[in-house]
Each structure stands twice: as structure tokens, then as C-alpha cells.
Amino acid sequence: MTTLSQDDAYQLPFASPEQQQQLLKQARVIRDTQWGTTLTYSRKVFIPLTNMCRDTCRYCTFVKTPDSGQAHLMTPNEVLSTVVKGQAMGCKEALFSLGERPEKRYQLARDKLSQQGYRTTLDYLRDMAQLVLDSSLLVPHINAGALNYDELKMLRPVAGSMGMMLESLTDKLMQRGQAHHGCPDKTPQRRLDTLIAAGKLDIPFTTGLLIGIGEDWQSRIDSLYAINRIHQQYGHIQEVIIQNFRAKPGTGMANACEPTRQDMLLTLAAARLILDPSISLQAPPNLEQDHQDYLEAGINDWGGISPLTRDFINPERAWPQIEQLAQTCARAGHGLKERLTVYPAYLNQPSQYLDRDIATRLSALSAHNGLAAQQCHL
């Protein structure tokens, strides 16, 4: 149940330091009550299937155009090689991340897909996810952007979970000079429609906000309430990420101001009080040196961390070593355990949320509590 009214949430930046500290305390209480004092992470390999995209977000360095000479579509052998190496290092999640519908913009994307025998990126993605299932013990998590009902339905049998960052619900970001100008897949309604379609299909889903890209505080609160309303209707949103924008050289937002530490903490605490307590709250540990402060704001999860592959979305930000993250948690009185790409609450309802083969795979990988078996970091 939401413990913070929308009007009160709008006023949080104007609260006194003492009131803001009380908010953080309330967020920690909700976290500890629902999730205990053990934080989780998913041990993954990152599979950047293609870095071509028809969208041109002004903060992104992941996307490469054909003119750059760096545009790429991973081959099946490249996918398989990454997965095999990851499995040998104990990874259980294969995170597919890719640009959205590049074949609709670039001839090079169409040519590379044709070389593999495909016309669309999503058809190729489906078969690469199936390759992971057929050739390894890993379970795919698919981040393919804004998808419609039929597209999500096509991908559901080959993924344990899926995700798409809502980012922000303000139309302002679509205007010329703003972060999402010229990005047809970033319209607020298209993102909301994806969340709703995933709910209708009972797909364990990840979404979240990217803060500091030009939105105001009220739009953040509106976005969190929108996510929560959809979850209240369908019950499928297993985790929400609050991610801080980092300015990158060579982008249209290279000189934009980044969110402050206090801004990030306040947004996290607001999320914890607005969202249903059953929704996991996550913040990436590699985007902020003082990420241990996130524990003060009520997070219960660090997201996917790879011992093998870098964060291709933020390649300049190395993952913390899992052992170091465990020490960070321990200093704050918390434990750290590995989870799977699907959270225990959804694993416990496999007939509703999981394809039969995926459920069987996850059952073999899970311990009695629904987290990952063979824990290395307790």
C-alpha cells in the first residue's frame, strides 16, 4: 500500500533536512519489513545483441550508427561464446540488451539480419534467446525496449523475465533539443502501453526511472504512481530501478548537470514509499562511487552484476567486485545473496508467470527460498 500521498510527494524537495531524513528512515523500515536485511543481486552476462537503434537519445553512447564504423549485430557464435564463458563463472542470467528496431532506419541493420537469415531484430532475438536455453543453463532476461502485445507474447516462452525502463512520463523530453527528441519508441504512451501489455501477459517485468535527463520532480512522482497503478492492476512488476543520469563526452548532453547524491536518495526513498512494498527497489552500484548510501534510502537489490562482461550501456563505469559489494553491505549490517532473474514471489506461481520450460530451468537453479542455489556470498 502506498504510504505517501501524491500531493505530499510533490513537496518533498522543499521539506527540511530533518523531514527528509525521516523520509529515508521510513523507507528503510518498509524495506526491512518486506525484504529483511539481506540485499540481492543477479549474477549475469551482458549480451548486447545489436548496438544499432532507430532512436537517438541525446545521452546515449551505447548506440552506434553505420557511419561510425562500430555498428554491430552479434552472431550466434558470439552469443554462445559469451554465454559459455559466463556459465563457467557461475552466471545464471543472460541479459539481452539491444537497440530498438534498427532495421527500420538502417540498411546495414537489414543487411546484417539478412546474413543471419532474418528480417527483423525481434525474430533474431527470439532465436538467440532460444539458443541460450538450448546450449547453456542460463535464463534470458530480455530488454528490447517498447514492444506491443504480440511481440511480448512471441518472446515470453524464451525469457524468464523482461524489462523496459519507463524513464519519464513527461512529453517535454520529446521536444527539439530535449533528451528524447526524434525517438519514436520513447513516447510516454508507448512505454506505458508496453507495461500494460506485459501485465496482461503475466510477464515478470522490470521498469524504472532515469533521473536527471530534463524531467522535473513532479514528473518523477507521476511516473512512480503510474508504475504502481499498473502493478496494482496486473501484479507483474517485480522490480523498479532508479538510475541516475551520468553525462558522457561526445553526447548531446555531455554538459548537462547530473543528479546530486541527495536528489538520488530522495528519489529512492520516495519510490520506496510510493510503490507497493512487494516491488523490489534497485539502484545500480556502478554509477555512483558512494553507492553504499543507497542502503539508507531503502533499496533491497543491486541489480545484475557481471563477473565477465562490462556494462555496455555505461562502459566507463566498471561493476564493483561482488566480494566488495558484500563488504559494503556487511558494513551497513546487511547480508548479500544471489538471486535469479525471476524473483521468488513469481517463481512460486510458475503456472501464471512462466513458460513451462523456463519454470523447469529456474527450479533447477533455485534454492528452497527461491534465491539462487549454491550461494557464494552470504
Q: Secondary-structure map with pairings?
A:
Layout (H helix, E strand, L loop, with lengths): L5 H5 L6 H19 L2 E11 L27 H13 L4 E5 L9 H9 L5 H15 L3 E5 L5 H7 L5 E3 L24 H13 L4 E7 L5 H18 L2 E8 L16 H14 L5 E3 L18 E5 L16 H10 L3 E5 L4 H4 L2 H4 L2 H10 L13
Parallel strand pairs: 1-2, 1-8, 1-9, 2-3, 3-4, 4-5, 5-6, 6-7
> How many distinct beta strands?
9
Main sheet attributes: strand count, strand direction, barrel closure: 9 strands, parallel
CATH fold-level assignment = TIM Barrel
Approximate helicity band = 25-40%
Order of helices and strands: HHEHEHHEHEHEHEHEEHEHHH
| Overall pLDDT level | 93
Report the portion of residues in β strands: 5-15%
Low-confidence stretches: none
User: Helix count, per DSSP?
Assistant: 13
Task: Say which CATH homologous superfamily is assigned.
Answer: Aldolase class I
CATH class category label:
Alpha Beta
**What general outline do the C-alpha atoms trace?**
globular
Structural class: alpha/beta
- State the end-to-end CA separation: 30 Å
| CA gyration radius, whole angstroms | 20 Å
Number of domains: 1
CATH architecture call: Alpha-Beta Barrel
Pathway: Cofactor biosynthesis; coenzyme F0 biosynthesis
Enzyme class: lyase
Cofactor: [4Fe-4S] cluster
EC number: 4.3.1.32
How would you summarize this macromolecular structure in one to three sentences?
With 378 residues, the chain is an alpha/beta fold. Helix content is 37%, strand content 14%.
Describe this structure in words.
There is one protein chain. This protein has 378 residues and is of the alpha/beta class. The chain has one domain: TIM Barrel. Helices cover 37% and strands 14% of the residues. The protein contains 13 helices and 9 strands. The protein has helices at residues 6-10, 17-35, 76-88, 107-115, 121-135, 149-155, 188-200, 217-234, 261-274, 322-331, 344-347, 350-353, 356-365, and strands at 38-48, 93-97, 139-143, 161-163, 205-211, 237-244, 280-282, 301-305, 335-339. Strands 1, 2, 3, 4, 5, 6, 7, 8 and 9 form a 9-stranded parallel β-sheet that branches. Helix 7 (188-200) links the parallel strand 4 (161-163) and strand 5 (205-211). Helix 2 (17-35) crosses helix 9 (261-274), helix 3 (76-88) packs parallel to helix 5 and helix 8 (217-234) runs parallel beside helix 9. The two termini are 30 Å apart. The mean pLDDT is 93.
